[in-house]
Specification:
8 strands, two-stranded antiparallel sheet, alpha+beta, 22% helix, 7 helices, 4-stranded antiparallel sheet, elongated
């Protein structure tokens, strides 16, 4: 429990407290479990004191000195720690939900299993900090420094990592699901076993000299790459530099190509004629298709995916109404009519952009194709745009 004498001095304000600290710098100050919620502790000297399990929710700690302090399991939800000094501070399992840590210094801080969900860490210095198993879901790390930091098994789902510096950081088995990593530096970082599902990177994202044996493209350790063995040196970088300007569209229940064409053409108009093309079409053999779309370097890939999916669903509804009118509601004929639209020759005719797909004399799923018409039932492999 907190020392009541220490608490009484603290409540007298910053001048009294800081002067007292200068006189008794060698005293062990105990504020464990203290209720300091919503207090104004702006510029307080709190370095090297104990605040374990203290309630600091909504407290103004901006520009305060908390270096080498102990705040294990402390509640700092919605607290303001902007410009605060937290170097080498023990913050294990502390709660920083929606806290403001912008431009704070957390060098070598211990944040193992800390809750940083929706926290603002923009331009914070977390170099060599320990964030193992920390929760950084939807956190803002824009422009922050995490060089040499330990983020093993950290949860970074939907976090903003734009222009952050992860040079030499370890992200072993970290979850980077839908992270925004535009212009982010991962040079010499460790990414073995991490999940990179739907992460958003661009040509400014630095992936040089990555140390990575394997990754997963889906959560739950699914879609391992490579499927067996480990990446050869430099192979990870080549893989992601090759596809970093694409959007992968997944259709789990088959695809209506006419509806896709309609949505794709609308996207071209929306992008003002910028080059868009299909890089690859992959049949997963379980009714699912993956279409990889090349997009401009500066495109917002998340918005492109959202727009295409929305327009595709609208096109499906419109086509369904058309089928009903033309075939007078006969379900069995509707199914036949719709199945015809999955003919791969339709893909060749309908796909927009500069790319062309010539299936004649091509080998798909182990069979040589000489016919002009190839049904999706016959496909066991993938179609690739060699011009992409």
């Amino acid at each position: 429990m907190a020392n009541e004498d220490h608490l009484a001095i603290l409540r007298q304000g910053v001048d009294v407290w800081n002067q007292w600290r200068e006189k008794v710098f060698d005293v062990n100050i105990n504020l464990n479990s203290a209720n300091l919620s919503a207090m104004n502790l702006f510029m307080f000297n709190l370095n090297n004191i104990c605040l374990n399990e203290a309630d600091l929710s909504g407290t103004d700690l901006s520009e305060s000195n908390l270096s080498k302090a102990s705040l294990r399991k402390a509640n700092l939800e919605n607290a303001n720690l902007s410009y605060a000094e937290l170097d080498e501070t023990d913050l294990r399992q502390a709660i920083f939900h929606k806290a403001n840590l912008s431009k704070a210094s957390l060098r070598k801080a211990d944040l193992r299993r800390a809750n940083l969900i929706e926290a603002n860490l923009s331009k914070a210095n977390l170099s060599k900090a320990n964030l193992s198993e920390a929760y950084l879901l939807m956190a803002n790390l824009n422009g922050s420094v995490l060089a040499g930091a330990n983020l093993n098994r950290a949860m970074l789902n939907c976090a903003n990592l734009i222009e952050a510096d992860f040079n030499c950081a370890t992200l072993h088995e970290a979850n980077l699901f839908r992270t925004q990593a535009l212009g982010t530096i991962f040079t010499t970082a460790e990414l073995t076993g991490s999940c990179l599902e739907d992460w958003n990177i661009n040509s400014f994202t630095k992936l040089d000299y990555i140390n990575c044996h394997y990754i997963y493209l889906k959560s739950g350790q699914q879609e391992r790459r490579p499927s067996n063995g480990n990446f050869a040196p430099g192979e990870f970088t080549k893989l992601f530099q090759k596809v970093q300007e694409t959007v992968d569209l997944i259709f789990n229940n088959g695809i209506d190509w006419q509806a896709f064409l309609t949505s794709f053409q609308k996207l071209q108009v929306k992008c003002g004629g910028e080059e868009l093309s299909i890089q690859a079409i992959e049949n997963k053999n379980d009714g699912a298709f993956v279409i990889r779309v090349n997009v401009p370097t500066d495109a917002n890939k998340a918005e492109v995916e959202k727009y295409l999916k929305r327009e595709y669903e609208l096109a499906l509804v419109a086509l369904e109404e058309k089928y009903q009118l033309q075939l007078q509601g006969k379900d069995e004929q509707i199914e036949i009519y719709r199945k015809q639209s999955t003919d791969l020759t339709e893909i060749v005719k309908l796909l927009a952009g500069r790319a062309t797909y010539d299936l004649r004399n091509s080998q798909i799923g182990g069979s040589l194709i000489n016919a002009e018409t190839v049904n999706t039932d016959e496909i066991g492999g993938n179609i690739h745009n060699n011009n992409a």
